[in-house]
């Protein structure tokens, strides 16, 4: 990190302008491919399978689920990884080695340790037994190709063994070992998720043998990932990068130093940008967006006051901190949206903290964003409804406003 001389101040307006441009949300900046969208955001949240498609569609010139399927399952240019904060992400194949070495490898080590303890305590199986089962699973996938967990249990019966948890207690449970073993194999990059069973909204996947990743050294990878994050989300604070990556503060500071990050002044305190990114960023034209739950943009920072008022959090987040579907106007979260059982996309503007407590909806501007914003948001809602068509999407992590609107 360097900080000689005067430190430039970057206010909320400039940060919001950067967001619209770099996250491909401003007019005229939408992408033509799923790979371009993913690169612009570093990684797409994939805990909820539908988020990958909805996040991409919001940024494509021609939205549709087939473009994501092409990249994930035909070209193989996008891959899924258990990475930052022990969360599932979709990243480009080119960046996968960096993400794995910087954030996923350490998680895989912890996952394996937890699995060995789980197997020993629940069934008396050791590491040698686990290795035999894992080799059998990989061999079965090599012979049979893409397979579901149930099919793998048929090829390798030991996957159907059960572990007893809390034995003898009222809440005693039994669980097949398959899900835990498959999860660790995937975390280590030995197998990978392929097409889901059912539609693109399904979270039940087929599995296949993964192509090996050529990993860079951890320190080098962490610097590369910090550089990608700063390019997409900068300026940001140490706390933001620490939260997003799941690293220690020491790791964050080493990575920022390695990329020569420049200090800037933010409302939250000291922030950082890349050395080539200190100069003022051009403003973008006003833009509207309907982003899904767990979209990378609202989940890109720990400190969100500059685009999401605290007053909106109870309506837009679940109890564990997962953001739900959000409505955006010109770099700010101004409301939420949902899909009703009949397919209608409905949305509501939340009260503007700076303009009193009046409420507004998709039918009336009320207080808060004006007519231009309401018209632009309505157009985005219509665009989303058109491409979803007969598909119905229910967020995996439901929030108070989404539940209310979808009822």
From TrEMBL:
GO terms for molecular function: DNA binding. Coiled coil: none annotated. Residues 350-372 are annotated as: Disordered. The keyword Zinc-finger does not apply. Keywords: DNA-binding. Residues 358-372 have a biased composition (Low complexity). It comes from the Bacteria. This is Winged helix DNA-binding domain-containing protein. InterPro entries: AlkZ-like.
């Amino acid at each position: 990190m360097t900080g000689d001389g005067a430190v430039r101040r970057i206010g909320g307006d400039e940060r919001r302008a950067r967001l619209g441009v770099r996250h491909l949300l401003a007019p005229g900046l939408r992408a033509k491919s799923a790979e371009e969208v993913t690169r612009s955001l570093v990684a797409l949240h994939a805990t909820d399978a539908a988020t990958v498609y909805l996040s991409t569609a919001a940024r494509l010139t021609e939205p549709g689920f087939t473009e994501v399927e092409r990249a994930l399952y035909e070209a193989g240019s996008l891959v899924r990884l258990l990475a930052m904060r022990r969360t599932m992400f979709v990243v480009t194949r080119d960046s996968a080695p960096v993400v794995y070495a910087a954030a996923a490898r350490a998680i895989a080590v912890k996952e394996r340790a937890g699995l060995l303890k789980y197997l020993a305590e629940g069934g008396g199986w050791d590491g040698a037994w686990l290795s035999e089962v894992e080799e059998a699973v990989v061999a079965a996938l090599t012979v049979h190709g893409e397979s579901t967990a149930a099919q793998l249990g048929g090829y390798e019966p030991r996957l159907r063994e059960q572990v007893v948890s809390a034995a003898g207690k009222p809440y005693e449970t039994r669980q097949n070992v398959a899900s835990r073993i498959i999860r660790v194999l995937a975390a280590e990059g030995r197998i990978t998720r392929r097409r889901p069973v059912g539609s693109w909204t399904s979270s039940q996947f087929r599995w296949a043998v993964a192509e090996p990743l050529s990993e860079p050294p951890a320190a080098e990878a962490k610097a590369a990932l910090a550089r990608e994050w700063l390019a997409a989300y900068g300026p940001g604070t140490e706390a933001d990068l620490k939260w997003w990556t799941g690293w220690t503060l020491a790791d964050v500071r080493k990575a920022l130093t390695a990329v020569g990050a420049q200090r800037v002044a933010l409302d939250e305190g000291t922030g950082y940008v890349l050395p080539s990114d200190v100069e003022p960023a051009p403003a973008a034209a006003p833009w509207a967006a309907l982003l899904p739950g767990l979209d990378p943009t609202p989940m890109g920072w720990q400190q969100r006051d500059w685009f999401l008022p605290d007053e909106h959090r109870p309506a837009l987040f679940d109890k564990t901190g997962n953001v739900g579907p959000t409505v955006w106007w010109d770099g700010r979260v101004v409301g939420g949206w949902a899909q009703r059982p009949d397919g209608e996309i409905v949305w509501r503007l939340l009260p503007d903290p700076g303009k009193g407590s009046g409420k507004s909806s998709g039918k009336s501007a009320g207080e808060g964003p004006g007519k231009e914003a309401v018209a632009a948001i309505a157009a985005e809602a219509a665009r989303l409804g058109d491409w979803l068509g007969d598909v119905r999407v229910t967020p995996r992590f439901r929030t108070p406003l989404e539940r209310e609107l979808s009822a």
